[in-house]
Amino acid sequence: MAQTTLHLIIHGRVQGVFYRDSMQREAGRLAVTGWVRNCNDGTVEAMVQGEASAVEAILHWARRGPPHARVDHVDSETGDGDYTSFEILY
Length: 90
What we know:
The chain is of the alpha+beta class. The protein has one domain: Alpha-Beta Plaits. The protein has 2 helices and 5 strands, in the order βαββαββ. Strands 4-1-3-2-5 form a 5-stranded mixed sheet. The longest helix has 12 residues.
C-alpha cells in the first residue's frame, strides 16, 4: 500500500495537556509513524505517515486532541521522510 505523509501544525491550547503523549498512543493504535513536538510559539508540530485511511484518522483526531486540549485549527500540508516508529521529539 502507498504511504501518505502529512506535516501538521496544531494551534490552540495544545501544550501542557498531554497532547504529544496522547498523539503517540493514537498513532500506535492506528499504525501511523512519524513524530510530534512542541514549538516555541505554543503550537504542536507533527509529521504523520501511514496508509491514507490511518493518516486521515489521525488528522481527524488531531483536530480535537485529548480531553483537556482546545484545538483552534490544524494546518496540514504534504510532508516527506521515511519513518519506522512514532516519536516524541524534545
